[in-house]
Amino acid sequence: MFSNNIFLQDIICPHIRKKNKCDILLCPFGHSYFEPQYQNAKKQKLSHGSTTSNALLQNNSININITNSHNNNFYNKTLHHKKREINDNFIYTDQLNNLEENVKNNISQNKLEIDNIGPKFIPTLHIPHETRVHFFKLIEQEFLRIYSDVNENKILAQNTSLEKELEILNSTYQNKSIYINSCKNFIISLKKTDIKKTKEIPDNMFLNFKHMNISLSDLEKYLLNDAQLQSAGYILEIPIPKTQTTDIFFHCDRCNMPFSIEKNYTKCNYHWGKLIKTSYEQNKIYSCCYENNTDSKGCITSPHHVFKITSPSKLSAQIQFVESQAPIQSSFLTAAVLDCEMIYTTGGMELARVTIYDINENLLLDKLIKPKNEVLDLNTRWSGIKSLNNAKITLSELHNIIFIELKLCNSTILIGHGLENDLIAIRLIHKRIIDTALLFQHKKGLQHKCSLKYLAKKYLKREIQTNVIDGHDSKEDAKATLDLLRYKIYHDNLKN
């Protein structure tokens, strides 16, 4: 046989190249790497290798695709390929380390870019984020098809997909299997949906509601008749005052325990949240503390029990009702948005703040009202009122301001959400009413009403009443009510 040196003697030994020493006996490779005749060749290869490597990195002649930043095997393969190329060109170890850091930085930067597109990452979820991104993209594809004939369809499809995916996530209570099935069912329903035109998109991205002019004829279409008002709980006539001295005990409006006004010394334990259904609990739980309704006595303690009077005759006995009259002058308030905040007193629930806007969203009135009876609870979580030190006017003085200064009359259209409660608090009888709680009907029927917070989020894409500690703001609620009416008018006009 012929000697190996014939083929390998011109190749420098790998051990010499790595650690400048070879301990292998009768090694077939060449060991003349450090002889003078090889020094020039070494320098030429080093300079040529460095130049080639830099050119490759700058010009991207080697295509390193790092689109899948989550694939560690791809990262190792890419780095191994680059190390091999560098070794072939005699690049030193510090250059290898620099390249490794560059590859890692590119991967981490690309990962951040991918995470910014799609649902927001929530580390506490039991559902993997990759699963959410997967179904988000599938939902987005369907909305891109549905909105293909709509201007700015990509933005609309992405925003709608983010909203729908989050709704599915919240409705499945972090159960992975339920989440996956819900997403699949929703995607199937989208596949059955036809392509929509621009006029069929009920979204406020095509209209700035702040600049929408509402005419009186637009408002007339949404006025409630007497039968609708009466079924919704509105008081249409001034009730006859009727007092009953036998009402010694009342039922607490929070914990439903009987108590006496004169001996209201016991503390009230209650839940401020609502009872909700869950997929993992047999019984309903409270939304405030997630405790079971069968064995929970309350997560909040109040020093007093509170109550609310619902009988019109008893309400009239506490504070007399007034009725809006015919206009005295030719000019009067044509339409206004009304929202009130109430507190608990020894006389039941009383008015504490009133806010009125005109139809162009100009603030007409925002006042704190001095209650007639002693205050038991400011109801801050819902009323947003922390003190009544700045309350200067009484309810009777408020009536004069409304009728004389604001020129409210029986021809004025009052707009509100669940306005029957506000009118009872003001003790006002009025029949020209637009109630957004009835305009946007609940899916279970007229006996149920959607909250203003829910309607604002669904139709206006607006979050209101988010501050649990500071409570509601009557200004914010009144503006949301007016914008809901604008949305309704605009959407109905598109259908005609």
What this model shows, in words?
This protein is 41% helix and 12% strand. Strands 8, 9, 10, 11, 12 and 14 form a six-stranded mixed beta sheet that branches. It has a two-stranded antiparallel sheet with strand order 1-2. Among the domains are: 118-201; 216-240 and 311-495, 2-Layer Sandwich (Nucleotidyltransferase, domain 5), CATH 3.30.420.10; 250-302, no CATH class. It has helices at residues 5-8, 14-19, 36-59, 72-88, 93-115, 129-146, 153-171, 176-191, 216-220, 226-231, 312-318, 380-383, 395-405, 419-426, 436-439, 452-459, 474-495; strands spanning 249-251, 258-260, 268-270, 275-276, 285-286, 300-302, 322-323, 335-345, 348-358, 363-368, 375-377, 413-416, 428-429, 433-435. α4 packs antiparallel against α5 (93-115) and α6 runs parallel beside α8 (176-191). The protein is an alpha/beta fold. Residues 33-96, 106-116 and 202-208 have low confidence and may be disordered. It contains 17 helices and 14 strands. A hairpin with a 2-residue loop joins β8 and β9.
For this structure, the CATH topology of the domain at 216-240 and 311-495 is: Nucleotidyltransferase, domain 5
CATH H-level superfamily of the domain at 216-240 and 311-495? Ribonuclease H-like superfamily/Ribonuclease H
Q: Main β-sheet, in a few words?
A: 6 strands, mixed
Radius of gyration (CA) equals 37 Å
The first-level CATH class of the domain at 216-240 and 311-495 is given as Alpha Beta
Query: What is the arithmetic mean of pLDDT?
Result: 77
Uncertain segments: 33-96, 106-116, 202-208
Any idea what the CATH architecture of the domain at 216-240 and 311-495 is?
2-Layer Sandwich
How many separate helices?
17
Shape: elongated
> Ends: how far apart?
97 Å
Number of strands: 14
**Share of residues in strands:** 5-15%
Q: Give the helix/strand class.
A: alpha/beta
Helical content stands at: 40-55%
